[in-house]
């Protein structure tokens, strides 16, 4: 048998449902009708919709068989305003070189973070192209060449031995006149990340000693854009 009833919650909880479950509910009136979540306050929540679930064991003697009381609550906290949380956006623009290039965009990200005044939170970095990718790694010249070799071995440029259907430009109506034969660049991008998230601690990017945020352009030269979002307090 299942019995459901509304219960009272603080104003920052949007909804809640209380359920008793058991073979014989016995004296329902003896069960509590109000549950207070004093350990969770509205200003502790930084997300729009956070669902909490708590299970309370009923006192012995109230129910004639073992059972439990389960509470589910949903918080409704406005994004970008809860607890002073702020969200900042920026489109980073850069021009890349020929072929495959690795571009360290950490200084630009750090500069944008400092301009927001956010002390604790995170930075989202998002690639806005199908032939670019993001990674967090060491920015070292010889490692760059190792990465180039690895990617070209993974997805070689189209030739007599590697034919890509995407490169059949005559079979793709409506493409621009300067459309490149870049199927290999798309395949490279699919094996890499399109976004990275970096924690922010005390107003600084929480990167390791040798870590940098790198944008890989796999089909340059191009004018590229990267979306940045800083969220925190």
TrEMBL record:
InterPro entries, per the entry: UPF0047_YjbQ-like, YjbQ-like_sf
SUPFAM superfamilies cross-referenced by the UniProt entry: YjbQ-like
Superkingdom to which the source organism belongs: Eukaryota
Protein name: Secondary thiamine-phosphate synthase enzyme
Organism of derivation: Cyanoptyche gloeocystis
């Amino acid at each position: 048998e299942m019995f459901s009833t509304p219960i009272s919650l603080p104003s920052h909880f949007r909804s809640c449902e209380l359920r008793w479950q058991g073979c014989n509910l016995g004296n329902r009136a003896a069960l509590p009708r109000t549950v207070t979540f004093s350990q969770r306050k509205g200003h502790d929540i930084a997300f729009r919709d956070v669902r909490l679930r708590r299970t309370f064991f009923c006192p012995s003697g109230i129910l004639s068989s073992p059972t439990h009381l389960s509470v589910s609550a949903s918080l409704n906290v406005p994004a970008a305003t809860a607890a002073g949380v702020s969200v900042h956006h920026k489109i980073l623009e850069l021009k890349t070189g020929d072929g495959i290039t690795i571009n360290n965009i950490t200084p630009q990200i750090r500069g944008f973070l400092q301009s927001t005044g956010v002390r604790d939170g995170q930075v989202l970095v998002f690639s806005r192209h199908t032939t670019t990718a993001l990674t967090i790694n060491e920015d070292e010249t010889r490692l760059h060449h190792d990465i180039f070799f690895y990617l070209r071995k993974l997805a070689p440029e189209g030739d007599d031995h590697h034919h890509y259907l995407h490169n059949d430009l005559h079979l793709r109506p409506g493409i621009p006149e300067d459309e490149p034969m870049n199927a290999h660049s798309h395949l490279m991008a699919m094996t890499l990340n399109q976004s990275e998230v970096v924690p922010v601690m005390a107003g600084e990017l929480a990167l390791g000693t040798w870590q940098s945020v790198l944008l890989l352009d796999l089909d340059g030269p191009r004018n590229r854009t990267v979306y940045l979002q800083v969220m925190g307090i």
